[in-house]
Amino acid sequence: MTRTTAEPSELFSKAEREAVYRAIYERRDVRRNFLPTPIPDEVLARLLNAAHHAGSVGFMQPWDFVIVRTHETKRAVKQLFLDSNAAAALRYTKPRADLYRSLKLEGIEESSVNLCVTCSRQRGGPRVLGRSTVRDTDLYSTCCAIQNLWLAARAEGIGVGWVSILNHAALKRLLGIPRPVKVLAYLCLGYVSEFAKKPDLEAAGWRARLSVENLVHYEAWGQRVEGKERLPGCESPRSIHERATRAKRG
Hints:
This is Putative Cob(II)yrinic acid a,c-diamide reductase. The chain has 250 residues and is an alpha+beta fold. 38% of the residues lie in helices and 12% in strands. The two termini are 31 Å apart.
């Protein structure tokens, strides 16, 4: 059968589409339940290659990855976290401060692999295509690489946790990262005993998930309705997971 020009090209099958959405909805920022099982080199290579295939403005590919495995380095990074976290806790007053101090916000020493993701802002030279008006597109591109890795990790049964409570200047000195290179993320990777049904901060009562319908504007900011219809409701992550589980059993 000849495909007409109006037909979409290279459609995924229904099962493939559901697997993509399942990875998105079941992705978690993991800080607990790490197992001692090491991540095989070939699996880590797949995750890094997935990250490396993210889109980047001007195809500049500004990311680098520093793999951390040794206990000594992890312990030093953990101390940086403890110092920064103690200072961060002082920003809150009771009862919020008590809730903050009860949260587990990292899995640095428990996870199999730590990964520092950086952005080399000079890569591609002074005139990168598409970057002349928005200089921070290199940072955005690196974040796309991180999300690629995160979703691929979920498909591999590997949890990823982003440790944002760190002094990046001190982290750069510890890891020997050159001054012009920017640290974007410090990630903890490892197999886990389970993935939480809800994000930790939602389960702890720190924040609730916003409704996507309230975040969509049509044609101009503040216009919430397109014609007579609002954005249709989305299928919940739970229903997608349950349907995928039934299909797997069947």
